[in-house]
Amino acid sequence: MHEGGFFYQAFVYLLTAVIAVPVAKRLGLGSVLGYLIGGVLIGPALLGLIGKEGQDVMHFAEFGVVMMLFVIGLELEPSLLWRLRTSITGMGGMQIVFTTILVGAAAMLFGLEWKAALAIGLTFSLSSTAIVMQTLQEKGLIKSGAGQSSFAVLLFQDIAVIPILAIFPLLATVLVEKAHPSFMETLPAWLQTLFVIGAVVLIVLTGKYILRHVFRLIAKTAMREIFTAMVLLLVIGIALLMNFVGLSPALGAFVAGVVLANSEYRHELESDIDPFKGLLLGLFFISVGASINFGLVIDQPVTLLLLTISLMAIKAVIVFTIGKIFKLGSGESSIFAVALAQVGEFAFVLFSFSTSLGILDNNTTGMLTAVVAISMAFTPFVFALNEKIIVPFLANKAPKKEKSADTIDEKSRVIVAGFGRFGNTAGRFLRANGVLPTVIDNDSDRVETLRKLGIKVYYGDPTRYDLLHAAGAEEAKIIIIALDIPEKVIELVHTIKKHFPHVKILARAYDRSDAYELIEAGVDKIYRETLDTSLRMGSDTLRMLGYRAYQTERMSHIFFKHDEESIEKLAHHRKDKKEYLTVARQNIEELEEMIKADFTDVDMNRDAGWDTDSLREEFANKGKIYP
Amino acid sequence: MKKILILFSHPALEKSRINKKLVNRINKVEGITFHDLYENYPKFDINIEREKELLLAHDIVIFQHPFFWYSCPPLLKQWIDLVLEHGWAYGSKGTALTGKWGLNVITTGGGEQAYAKEGMNGHTIWEFLAPFRQTFSLCKMIPLPPFVVHGTHKLEGEEIDKYAESYVYIVESLRDEKFDLATLQNARYLNDLSVKKVEG
User: Fold this and answer.
1) CB-based contact (8 Å) between B198 and chain A?
2) Which residue among B45, B84, B87 places its CB closest to the CB of A614?
3) Across the interface, do B48 and A627 touch by the CB < 8 Å criterion?
4) A44 and A155 share a domain?
């Protein structure tokens, strides 16, 4: 009933996503499983809404994986890598080596020769970054010991993909003759390896010395869609280059991401590419679901099930042991183990790669691909099982050990939006006291300068939800809004109130009427930009007139507090009057109310404890002395 | 049931070892008002009306502070200067605080033997506290002996905990009126009335 038209396909896939994901989330299964189940439903085996062209869609959707690796690369700041070095190399290295050996040995027991077994072992040692990170995020486990360890191992796996891809051609048993062999495939193996290195070096150099300037120029145009276009162009360009030299586009994108991780445009790049990445990954998961070979599943359900379960068990036991070696508690280790027990999406790429290299035959890869997909589909269930039964059991049995030392990219507790003349003082003061805020600013020249001074600052429009998200607003405690434009301040307040209601907001207000609006919007604390300064001016005037310094100091503080209280009161008052007064009239009336409400000097000098009038009076009357 | 107001003043609680523990225990005691002066008035801008209301609402006033230079930190002195107004707290018409009890809870680096005629400081704690005692008296309040933590620089974990427990015990006893006034007034330190007294 399907006619492969583009709009028809787009309709089917989007509809699947829109229905399956919310339903799956409702059932507590997570979005990944939602996509997978959706894919199974519309696949040729069941409803048949999509047929063989599902394979093509999968190839297209693999681009989501490319983008994901680009984003992962972006998150790999060298400093973060350095801090996590022990976890990454230790845990990650052990995980890959042991899994490869054990799974490879098992494969050889099934009668495969060592090259094939090695390819299978390497492929199965990888886990699904997409599934794991998404699940951990949804469950709020990212910051836990298990979450951080998972992240470290996934990181190592993502890096390990590079040598794995380079090793595979060396395992090739036959040189596959294609109708149109690519330029690379006509070359001998050693030259191919040389090309791999050459292409990577090219990307690194371009990223390091050219791209930043290009982004800067484009950022200066202040056209957001052009920036987005540039990001997409970059990723697609890399994919094409990689294809040309016969390498994995994902690998190239990953390298480009790492190179750009230190750039001030990192968050902007990340948030621009995020929706594309998300949708394409969804599409990818749907096509994985659709491509599960149900013929195989129906023929050999027991074999497949046993294979999947024993594979996941092997992987989990290895990871659990590593967790224990690295002093994680039992509960954390079991979460860590369950998280990494499935096989990653990269397996699909590696299996098709190894088929084309003749390392594995079609039958084997068909079977193994099904195992991968099933292991992915099992993950949410295993997670739930672990969470409900195993972790509580372990936690009751042994006192949970706190994990020490290594922490991943500890998101800053404070975000400063706008680092202009207002925000920079607040931000510098925080830094001077050891609180390093995440700074977002949308002036690219300023960002450049601050970066040169070693301040961690990101380029972008802080009012954007996705940028706030990328800057870690979920984990932040306080957001300081110090933007120049009052309308932008209000806009940002609304965004934060809507998406991150737990974050405290300290906002800069331009003037009183601006302050009223912010009070109405529910800002926690408001700072009128001229209040403190003009009061200082007033008290300096008093001093020049001969008033004592401490007196003017106290008086200005009393006045300040009174003014702060009165603005709260007037805010409500003003709300009632709003309808029938013009803004100008309103301001004049307010000035009148304000002055009327001000203290007189009688009110101000009320520290009677330092006053001897009443004492002298009493002394005169009764002749009795008091201090 | 007596209502107790603790006026706590410490300019650098973040650096404190003893007071931090005392505070963490005492501010969880039910039925007392713990009032952290430096936290409320970092600019010495004491809200006199509010302080007066607090005093009126309580029966026992405790000044808790480190015994810096044989006295209290400056904010508490400013509080005394400004809140205890003539005609309200003292003077012929000043009767607002009549009959309330007042005492100091202090922490000091010197040991007990240092606070004696022959000791390093030449006077007892009771003698040093004369200005506070007389302040209470002038306000027609009844001064009580202090609760004293001696030798703070040498105290370690468990010893500090014991002092904290003893402090909590004394404050709870005051609240629940376990001791009569004579017993209290006859004690050298209120610590001595605690069953959980720290030896030495």
Assistant:
1) no
2) B87
3) no
4) no
Same domain? A218 vs A300: yes
What's the CA gap between B179 and B147, in Å, rounded?
A: 15
B91 vs A610: CB contact, 8 Å cut-off?
no
- Please check whether residue A156 lies inside any domain of the structure: yes
The reply to whether B14 touches chain A by the CB within 8 Å rule is: no
Please tell me whether residues A124 and A267 are part of one structural domain: yes
Chain A CB contacts of B81 under 8 Å are 609-610
Q: Are residues A385 and A364 in the same domain?
A: yes
Q: What is the mean pLDDT of residues B105-131?
A: 94
Q: Do A626 and B91 touch (CB under 8 A)?
A: yes
Cβ contact, residue pair B87, A561, below 8 Å: no
pLDDT in tens, A222-244: 777 888 888 888 888 888 887 77
CATH architecture of B4-193: 3-Layer(aba) Sandwich (3.40)
**3-state secondary structure string, A424-460?**
HHHHHHHHHCCCCCEEEECCHHHHHHHHHCCCCEEEC
Q: Is residue A405 situated within a structural domain? A: no
Give the end-to-end CA distance of chain B in Å, rounded to a whole number: 32
Domain that holds residue A88: 60-175+193-397
- How far apart are alpha carbons A505 and A524 in whole angstroms? 5
Beta-carbon contacts below 8 Å between A and B: 38
pTM above 0.90, yes or no: no
Smallest CA-to-CA distance from B146 within B130, B122, B162 is with B130
User: Domain for residue A521, yes or no?
Assistant: yes
Q: How far is A508 from chain B (nearest CA, A)?
A: 22
**Subunit contact A561:B45, Cβ cutoff 8 A:** yes
A106 and A38 belong to one structural domain: no
Q: Is residue A549 packed enough to be buried (19+ CB in 10 Å), middle (13-18) or exposed (0-12)?
A: exposed
Residue B61 belongs to what H/E stretch?
strand B60-66
Minimal Cβ distance to B85: which of A609, A618, A624: A609
- pLDDT digits over A373-413, tens only? 888 888 878 887 887 777 666 644 443 333 333 333 445 78
Q: Verify whether the Cβ–Cβ distance A627 to B138 is below 8 Å.
A: yes
pLDDT of B74 higher than 90 = yes
In this structure, are A43 and A10 located in the same domain? yes
Q: Say yes or no: B158 contacts chain A, CB-CB below 8 A.
A: no
Domain ranges for chain B:
4-193
Three-state SS sequence of A491-526: HHHHHHHHHCCCCEEEEEECCHHHHHHHHHHCCCEE
Measured CA angle at A59 (ends A54, A63), to 5 deg: 130
Residue A215 within any structural domain of the chain? yes
Q: Are residues A34 and A102 in the same domain?
A: no
DSSP B115: S
SS3 A95: helix
Look at chain A and report how many structural domains it folds into. 4
pLDDT at position A447 is 72
In chain B, residues 90-149 whose CB comes closer than 8 Å to chain A: 90-92, 138
Q: End of a domain among A338, A367, A397?
A: A397
User: Which residues in chain A touch residue B138, judged by CB atoms under 8 angstroms apart?
Assistant: 626-627
Q: Are residues A466 and A369 in the same domain?
A: no
For A602-615, what is each residue's pLDDT tens digit? 555 566 677 777 77
Of all residues in chain A, the percent with pLDDT exceeding 90 is 14
A50 pLDDT above the threshold of 80: no
Tell which of A352, A372, A397 closes a domain: A397
Kindly list the residues from chain B whose CB atom is less than 8 angstroms away from the CB atom of residue A622.
Answer: 92
- Whether A361 shows a pLDDT value over 50: the answer reads yes
Q: What is the rounded CA–CA span in Å between residue A480 and residue A525?
A: 10
Instruction: Tell me which of A46 and A326 has the higher pLDDT.
Output: A326
Higher pLDDT, A12 or A81: A12
- Find chain B residues with C-beta within 8 A of A554's C-beta: 44-45
How are beta strands B4-8 and A478-481 bridged, if at all? unpaired
Q: How far is A560 from chain B (nearest CA, A)?
A: 11
Q: What would the mean pLDDT of A26-36 be, rounded to a whole number? A: 75
